[in-house]
Write a structure and sequence with these properties.
Helix content is about 35%, strand content about 25%. It is built from 5 helices and 5 strands. β2 (about 60-70) and β3 (about 75-85) form a beta hairpin.
Length: about 170
């Protein structure tokens, strides 16, 4: 059946202090790694079926990437939210968006830092279809809560997430 399908994925990139500060102050000579990574992540999510064999070509309704710069460990957390009405899930599109965004940042920053580490690429949430939803409440970012205010997401879960994020600070 055609139902609302949604997914959120996350990944992180760890940089040297110098590279992190160049990114933070938009001083990378090739351009702004965060904006370029956002564009490449959106394109990658849309083109997932061309990259991954047997992945369905899906017309996505929404793709959103968010970036959090963590000063304490010189890392950047990347989140990708994808949604559409379809017969199949969108978790591969979300994971592809995060991965390509991280790879884009790596490519733009590698001239400054040869010790870049990409890590922790995970699916945080998926729902829609006949399978049960998957939700890792410990790591879903609060800025996606508005996406879940609909008939497909249990009110109790939204309440839990709001309570959880009121006590959490990122990075």
């Amino acid at each position: 059946n055609i139902t609302l399908r949604r997914a959120i994925s996350k990944g992180s990139i760890f940089l040297s202090e110098n590279a992190f500060n160049l990114v933070k102050n938009n001083k990378i000579y090739k351009g702004d790694p965060l904006r370029l990574a956002e564009v490449s992540g959106v394109i990658a999510a849309k083109k997932t079926s061309f990259i991954i064999p047997l992945c369905h070509n899906i017309n996505l309704d929404k793709i959103s990437l968010r970036f959090f710069l963590c000063d304490d460990n010189y890392s950047i957390d990347v989140y990708c939210y994808v949604s559409c009405y379809a017969k199949t899930g969108v978790e591969m599109e979300s994971l592809t968006g995060v991965t390509v965004a991280l790879l884009t940042m790596y490519d733009l920053i590698k001239y400054v830092d040869s010790n870049i580490k990409i890590t922790n690429i995970n699916l945080l949430f998926k729902d829609g279809g006949k399978d049960l939803s998957f939700c890792n409440y410990n790591i879903i970012p609060h800025f996606f809560l508005d996406e879940f205010k609909d008939k497909y997401f249990c009110y109790k879960d939204v309440f839990y997430l709001k309570k959880f994020f009121s006590q959490l600070s990122f990075c």
